[in-house]
Amino acid sequence: MTEVVTKQELDEAFAMFYGMAASLKDLASPPVEVADEERVAAAKRVFLKGIDANFATQLDACVHCGACAQACQFYLGTEDPKYTPVHKLDLMKRVYDRELSPLSWLKKFIVKDITADDLRAQQELVYDSCTMCGRCNLVCPAGINIADMVAMNRSALAAARLMPDELRFMQEGQEADGTIFGADEDLFRFRMDALQEKLGFEIPIDKPKADVLLVTTGLDIHLFQDATGGTIETLHHMGVDYTLRSDAYEGANFGLLSGHEGTKKKMAAKLANAAIEVGAKVVIVPECGHAFPALRWGAAEALGKPVDFDVMTVSEYFGKAVMDGRLKLEKDKESRVVALHDPCKVGRWGGVFEEPRAILKAIGWELHETESNRAYNFCCGGGAGNFLIERANPLKRAGYRVKMAEIEKTEAKTLVVSCGSCRMNFEVGKVNAGDTIPVESLAAIIAAHLPKTEGAKA
Amino acid sequence: MTLLDFARGPALQGAAFIFVVGMVWRALGLLLLHRNTPLSRNRDNHLARHGFRTVLSRFIPAPVFERRVSFQYVAGWIWHLGFFVVLLFFKIHVMFFQGLLGFGWPTLPNGVVVAVAGITLGVLLWLLGRRIVNPVLRYISTFNDYSSLVVTMLPFITGFLAFAHYGFAYETMLALHILSISLLLVWFPFSKLIHVITLLPSRYILGVKFWRRGVQA
């Protein structure tokens, strides 16, 4: 592997980036003043459009058994009952009961209507204390999809203009520029030039046609250059016909994270159209947890029709290549004991479990699984954009401790992740908790184990 | 008309009518709502098979959750099973159904049914106590939760008293027992007891949702 960034450079970039991320709240424009009635009406419109027969059935299936609390790391980390996952659906249940349920004619007189103050109080429940990781979905005896309904709550609050300032800043920025953290085209090109120089080969940008469209993200452009560099180096090694696009390189989607439907669809459509234009068979999204669902499950929804290309995350694309024998990796002389973090949006919500494990096996590292793994993993504690929300810091720390306690039990010497925001959250959590376990990018690990000779062709 | 005549006649019939109409209304109301269908490609097919798999698999908690939630799964199992055993295999109940349907079925000895009813009522009382004491349950519980528990317990309490000839005259206790069942029937469509028709479909919906993404939920 070519070292595209040294440990010291990464640490310095992290410190600078963390400082920038911590000031987002102050950078946000003043919130738009909206009448309370308008807020309530906007939120209700989202609920009434979003609650279909499936969600209604699930809302009517809850017996308030409380099992979901036992799966939620924010409850487990704080033992505060207000973080019980299903409690976060009370507001939408009230709207459903009063306005959509078969008993609405009766419930109108019994159930209290929602107010703008209710919506404000809901912010903490569906943003700060929930990363929509979906672990609660797996313990619920009724199989209620609590996480997706929390996402609908985020959309309702976004429509009511009640997003946390940090996410609003990010969403508005991406709506305007198409990218995040100010990673505009100039910076993208600057970074690619720098990577090109270090890697020693040309990085294809804006090729008119290619089999694979590679996407990156502002987080990697600013910070995790090893992940982007590792991905590019491995694609080059495999001889893949790929390209990046200077007009469609941002994989992050703060429409999805903030709950802003317009931005969510706009960003997904932009990437989908770019993929169609280059005739890509596969779009590889970066090591960015939510970039995967935003495009894998969101591209067709954004265009309003099925799409012909596949969407894979880095770990999935290279993991499949390893499993199929198309990518050979060199084993380390000495095995290293590692733990693997399954990012929620890629694992539990995306079905990517075996591919990263195949990669670790191929390089001869000894994986010690956490007690909760694969579909049952704990979130890093700061997913779904929460790593940027300042007021959620105590909750993030509580969530991080729950996760890290499982990692510590594995006695692993390194934590492997394939999601930039998980990585970011682990790094911040480590600083706060005084932990020292190294956190490494899977993409960078793959590149570090490429054989010196040419690998099999894709 | 005696209280027993009222309970056996208009009360039970009216309650049964409300139960049937209410449950059909609720079910139709859910079925007739629009249904959003995803456009993105499934990672895997055979969705129906895996939906049913989730319906079955959620009867027990996943191993990683066993330590924290097994007891409440077991408690739920015990009292639901106990409810059906007492309802369907108590001799007097079977005689009632025979009068209604024209055919009967084997019954369990009274001693067994009484023991099962005792355990069931005990578990229900424990669940009520837990709902009051446990901080999570206390926080999320509403009138719907407490009332549904009490309304479910009443037929057991009145049934015990009638069976033991305790309290009021037997006819009065029997009437109260039937009235408590009528109340339970009326309560079904208006309360969380509606989960008898939504819980298994809800599991199926989640099973399909996850399986199309390649995840066994």
Automatic annotation (TrEMBL), chain A:
* Database matches in InterPro entries: 4Fe4S_Fe-S-bd, 4Fe4S_Fe_S_CS, Cys_rich_dom, Helical_ferredxn
Q: Which Pfam families match?
A: CCG, Fer4_8
Q: Which residues form the 4Fe-4S ferredoxin-type domain?
A: 53-82, 121-149
What the entry lists under PANTHER family is as follows: FUMARATE REDUCTASE IRON-SULFUR SUBUNIT, HETERODISULFIDE REDUCTASE
* Record lineage: Bacteria, Pseudomonadati, Pseudomonadota, Alphaproteobacteria, Rhodobacterales
Its protein name is (Fe-S)-binding protein
UniProt source species:
Paenirhodobacter ferrireducens
Q: Which domain of life is it from?
A: Bacteria
From the Swiss-Prot or TrEMBL record, what is one GO molecular function term?
A: 4 iron, 4 sulfur cluster binding
> What keywords tag this UniProt record?
4Fe-4S, Electron transport, Iron, Iron-sulfur, Metal-binding, Transport
From TrEMBL, chain B:
Output this protein's name.
Nitrate reductase
Q: Where does the sequence pass through the membrane? A: 12-33, 77-96, 108-128, 149-168, 174-200
Q: Which InterPro entries match?
A: NarG-like_sf (IPR036197)
Its domain of life reads Bacteria
What keywords were assigned to this record?
Membrane, Transmembrane, Transmembrane helix
